């Protein structure tokens, strides 16, 4: 704790003025200028010297200046607050002063967040700014932290009501005055202390909201293991508090983003990972582990995520929550929207009761259904976010096991129609200044968070079959039996008591809404990603046929060709999904050829592919791999597809493959490789690995050399490719997960990947399969150091 400031009036006794006051007055004989006073206070706040607090002025001086400057009496109130908040005070008078200050700031904060600027425009110096400038923020921090001080072995106490007033005032000041939140974030002991205030239900909401804002600007992530009695604190939260607490957890368990685009390159990520290995687990990883060690934590999150609207907290407590804190869960915009709906439904109910002659119930005692639904939506999106982050963390398998055990997936399936993908009514609730299709809408955010969770849950994990119901699992078995292939082991091992119930599983429900989605919908990207994650990993014929029978391929082709989708993100997700759906599947290629049944349609399809290879290269890779497998099979059905399918005929041409190969290598460089475009490098390698199998690798390299010369850039492409392959070795030879993914998705052993790269990087210029053999000596530039320290 900082030492207490000098007593009120010290340094400004009768007949004497402090140097700071003299400066503020503009000299011994000049008239006092309020602007100078504020300037000096601001400088003192930044430097810690000269004027810092209201207690450095006399009350008479402040009163005189207030008449001219319209400070709303805030400096005088702070002077009194300091005098009545000393260690031995009973705080009664202190609380009364806080009650006077609070409305002066809360009205201004409400006007600020609702964009009603009249108040702030008319006031030269807004109340919150004056409150902070005269030391109000620091004083409230000291008052709040008084319980950390012991006098003769006994800790001081302040009432919950007083704590609540302090927290409200601090939050309002943070909202309106720039820099306050950052200053509070720098007080690490204060931030940790705030968590202890959440033990009281009376102060929980105010504390949680303030913590969330502070952590949002804090440079270094807080460590939850430093919070006293974290396990006990969280375990004692009721479900409503836990849902609110998830807003704080969202900040503490997500890896901090530096905001620098360079940090998203694989070079930078690899360098960061090397540093992380020497530093140990990150704060986010430590926080995730701390939460997972709390008994029943994940189970309670699953219950919150799957709770039906009718099971949510009763009307009275929710309305009380709204009244106590207008920034409930987000900010005043949410309250504004909630109360508007409540009033509309109340007026509607009142009109109906007057017509029927029946008594009506006040909106204050009867919570409208739309408000109940929004209440749940706001909670669930935070809970789903936390579960999603935990699913992607180091303890992924542990979280997966618990999520399955606590039946999160069947629970979400039961909520799908009524809450998650419910139909919008004409008066569907949206935030003030937004519309139903805005990404800021709680409805939209919940849907996206739900889809992200499904993607994380299904990705390369055998638990993905929990997205089906018993009948659908039986259908998978029947598909395998009919095709005379072994059943997928993960299907056989699926615990049938944990799968979805009802007529349709979650995956089937998702497919249904996906096919109905408008062309311009922002959901298309996330829907495609979620379904694609179900297909990722080792290719499963049964999984593909399950989706093909439900018309997924035709829907994708309609979106790519007939609707001529323009969104790059949506196109990429649809090409990736199409590739996984068609890979090695003869039936899928037959369906493709049946849909793309004219040259005009095929040309539109090719135009979409060639418009951006970064987006479509995964499809190119899958078709290339499928062609190679089909050419090595002796089967009438396969032979028929090979002879009829336009796409396979197109990819089989060497000039087509060389065109793709040249462009794939040309659009990426080591310094610009990211998780998104590194697939271009791997697709180019697939083309060359298959050429190597056919002993055509030297031919492909020679053709690349000719293409270089025809573009009048000899050596440019092959030097770049050489550097890319050197990086490939550094990146993949030390990351088991990535290498496993490459092997599973291509059905080419990783040892063959490594051998091919080594052959291409062979320094012997006499080797017909070495890149250096095709780079003329004057243009050789293969020893660049691209390592990022």
From TrEMBL:
Keywords: Receptor. Pfam families: DUF3689. It comes from the Eukaryota. GO terms for biological process: ubiquitin-dependent protein catabolic process. It comes from Heterocephalus glaber (Naked mole rat). GO terms for cellular component: Cul4A-RING E3 ubiquitin ligase complex. The lineage of its organism: Eukaryota, Metazoa, Chordata, Craniata, Vertebrata. InterPro entries: ARM-type_fold, TRPC4AP. GO terms for molecular function: phosphatase binding. The gene is Trpc4ap. This is Short transient receptor potential channel 4-associated protein isoform X2. PANTHER family: SHORT TRANSIENT RECEPTOR POTENTIAL CHANNEL 4-ASSOCIATED PROTEIN, TRANSIENT RECEPTOR POTENTIAL CHANNEL 4-ASSOCIATED PROTEIN TCPC4AP.
